[in-house]
Request: fold
Amino acid sequence: MKYFISFLLIFFSVSVLASSFYSKLLKEAALKNNFKQISVVNKKFDKKKSSLGKKFFHDTMLSFNSDMSCGTCHLTKFSSADGLPNAVGVGGEGEGIDRMFSDGEIVPRNTLPLWGRGSKDFNTLFWDGKITQVDGEIISQLGLLTKNYASMDNEYEIIQDFYQDPLISAVHLPFVEIRELVADDEEVTEVLKKESIDTAMNVFYDLTERIKKDSDYTKEIKEIYNLEVDQIEFFVVADAIAHFIRDEFAIKETIFSDFVFNDGKLNDDAIRGGLLFYGKAKCSSCHSGTLFSDLDFHSIPYPQVGFGKNGFGVDYGRFNVTYDPDDLYKFRTPPLINVEFTKPYSHSGSVFDLKEAIRYHFDPLKNLDLQNISDLERVEMYKKLKISGQNINQIPYLDENELDQLVEFLKTLSFK
Ligand code: HEC
Ligand code: HEC
Reply:
């Protein structure tokens, strides 16, 4: 009996030692991969501007057809996304799954959550990076947007923020995105489709006029921005919403950050999953930093569902922005904060299960019903496989147990 007790004691102390050894390794791996304290990453915001931005975010008056708002697709109950494979825009009714059965126009991408999108150095926005900041300069499809403002005869202080903050540019885009907040009817969109800066400016102008007629808004804008009614421009809306995003969707302490920087505990599977993530499985070569994204573009052979940005079940991803054939089928690495709650996954929302979302990175054929997919889908898959071949090869085979451990780890990236 005595021997048995000593054996038990030794056994437990060895396993406690091993577990604290693995904990230490994981903390070191995270720090080496640029994982920082939450407080260092979040950007400052102004509480009053944020509270005005919150009103704009939820105001249907600010959609061209007055039937929806940012909050229709970025919902608290779906962790700032909408729970749908593809977003349902103008004309849709209800929230979440209800929208799929309404007559709304389909936006051919999966709604991105907003966590950390207002943080420092978050310089690449949207699945295809249609807003980027390179060497300080903001590049967008409305390329002339910043320059247009620059040439405007004014000296507003917030213009400075606009030059420096890609989020403010990003917030402009949904307002002029066909199907998202502008109906796909010929009259309005023929010109918008050409991505004419003038038409976008006309939409912004029209929306600004609506604000100018609302005495509650004009009073608040005067108070916060010190602008008279005739001085109000659309960037006030974008700036206030950007402050709201920085506030409402700031990164908070996660189970993992609490583990790395405080004395938070992880279970053994999460620790092993974390070591896989930073080690053998090489996830951190793309999902790096505090938000778990290198903000760069890669191709992962996810199946495409829905109409696709390029129509008929095709989405060329980054290529749509650069027209560089090397960018075909590449998408910005998605950040993984709260990933447990932001399903479905991938740019087209084609995967509902977190474990399978990981598996597609190295075994994309496992879940494909090769008998029942269309010829086009199969041909598209061949192309993606060729382009993502290197990425697939980089990740070794992971067995079910390892995949479960990775999922356990990803769950620690949720807020505490
Ligand atoms: C119809 C649903 C819908 C509405 C309405 C909507 N969004 Fe989105 N949002 C999306 C989708 C879909 C994406 C991903 C689009 C893409 O990347 O091509 C997205 C992406 C974003 C992003 C980029 C996030 C990232 O990770 O880069 C921001 C910021 C954003 N939306 C803010 C807003 C704001 C602000 C409004 C209101 C002006 C708004 N959205 C209205 C569906 C919507
Ligand atoms: C070569 C870069 C790269 C590597 C390595 C990589 N990923 Fe990804 N990951 C991506 C990209 C890019 C996407 C989005 C692709 C798309 O939507 O078409 C993605 C998507 C995901 C998603 C879905 C997230 C969402 O919100 O849609 C999860 C989860 C994920 N990766 C986890 C992992 C894990 C775990 C590993 C390690 C086994 C890993 N990734 C390795 C680039 C990478």
Q: What stands out?
A: The chain has 18 helices and seven strands. The mean pLDDT is 89.
